[in-house]
Amino acid sequence: MRISVVGCGYVGLVTGGCLAETGHEVVCTDNDPVRVETLQAGKVPIYEPHLDTILAATRQAGRLSFTGNGGEAVRAGEAIFICVGTPPLETGEADLSAIDNVARMIATEARGPKLVIEKSTVPAQTGQQLKRALTVYGRNAAVAFRVASNPEFLREGTAVEDFLHPDRIVVGVEDQTTEQQLREIYRPILEGRFNCPVHSPACPPALTPSLLVTTINSAELIKHASNSYLGLKISYANVIADLCERLGADVEEVTRAIGLDPRIGPQFLRAGLGFGGFCLPKDIQAFIRLAERAGVDFGLLKEAERVNRRRMDQFVEKVRRALWVVKDKQVGVLGLAFKPNTDDIRFAPAIELIGRLLAQGARVRACDPEAMEKTRAVYPHIAYSHDPYEIARDADALLIITEWEDFRDLDWKRIHSLMARPLVIDGRNLLAPAAMKALGFEYHSFGRPD
Ligand code: UGA
What we know:
Elements: E1 2-6, H1 10-21, E2 25-29, H2 33-40, H3 51-60, E3 64-67, H4 70-76, E4 79-82, H5 97-109, E5 114-118, H6 126-137, E6 145-149, H7 159-164, E7 168-172, H8 176-190, E8 210-214, H9 216-247, H10 251-259, H11 280-293, H12 299-323, E9 330-334, H13 349-359, E10 363-367, H14 372-378, E11 383-384, H15 388-392, E12 397-400, H16 405-408, H17 412-418, E13 423-426, H18 433-438, E14 442-444
Parallel strand pairs: 1-2, 1-4, 2-3, 4-5, 5-6, 7-8, 9-10, 9-12, 10-11, 12-13, 13-14
Helix pairs in contact: 1-3, 4-5, 5-6, 9-11, 9-12, 11-12
The structure holds uridine-5'-diphosphate-glucuronic acid.
Uridine-5'-diphosphate-glucuronic acid binds next to helix 9.
């Protein structure tokens, strides 16, 4: 099928690349000319495992292209995926202005019927507004638009794998033609007919993903409800961690046991600095506001958000308690991205932490396998090194903020010998307390005996 993707952020690129990988002809566009030029030059502006491979392969096969001409892109596809950002407004509500702009562009540039699919995360009832906008902005009453919601559940760092091997595909539709068209788009994925760039030589056996057909309103709500539940689960684990600290229990032991109950499940019970990134924090806020508007008190989510915001205060307090005086101390920050295997620093705990450390007069050096360039744009004056051992040299404390495997695998004995004071405060419970203690470190983490 001929498909257009509007918005070349992380969701748009993964969607465009994976749909091209599964045999469709895809044209992607973005209103940032620099981004389009970068992509046309064969460079990928974000770090996401396997994305560069599929973008290069599908471009070479002639199934994927990038254009700065939005009208051209709109006219190219029978189906148009809207993948633009919906960042938070000051109120916490989602800013839908990019969706509105895209609706205007589609309505004015389309010359034939289009299926317009929301992939961006949007509050329930946006589909109705989108349908209205397409009609209002359209100049040609003969050009018909159908609207669908197709929320994405992929995670940064494993986005390509998640797109090609989803646990579910949700399509919110109003008619059978739209349902059929979406089934057609996802048929190669549902039937496992594509060259998987992630698994070689063959994908591990897995259950066939289910395609769930819902109303548009339900599909939109499913996305917010899923992300909010994940945030809720993390905050729950974090409060358990606080309790463990007070009562002398070990949160890893507790969450492992809780997670073995299949009704609860083991994932998203990792205690630590809490959830960051461009999805969970903003989606929880938007969901709370949506509920408020609908007259439903979602106090449960408000509390989860409050717990999450407090994580950083608690971490900074751990640092202060351990260092006593923070001013003039040499502090090494290991990890800048909001999670491993990405270079995304949006709403990353490290960004807030560095700001707080600098405000207290610390001398900060930072290291991340992928996210240093983006962080340099925010903090140009702190020191960076690709080499964690350089970060450790003469440091008064090392703070682990992102759980990159590379950090787990460091030669911690060597680090001990390099530091001015062997103090490690682990915001992600990445290392084993007993092993660190055996090496002679003063080691603090969340919810585990020091
Ligand atoms: C999240 C959802 O997991 C995806 O399903 C969704 O598609 C995506 O948002 C989106 O809306 O686009 P993502 O933001 O990539 O994906 O990251 P997560 O893996 O959900 O992690 C979010 C944050 O929670 C990270 O800061 C991570 O460190 C933290 N986290 C995660 C914990 O603190 N504990 C855990 O047990 C798990």
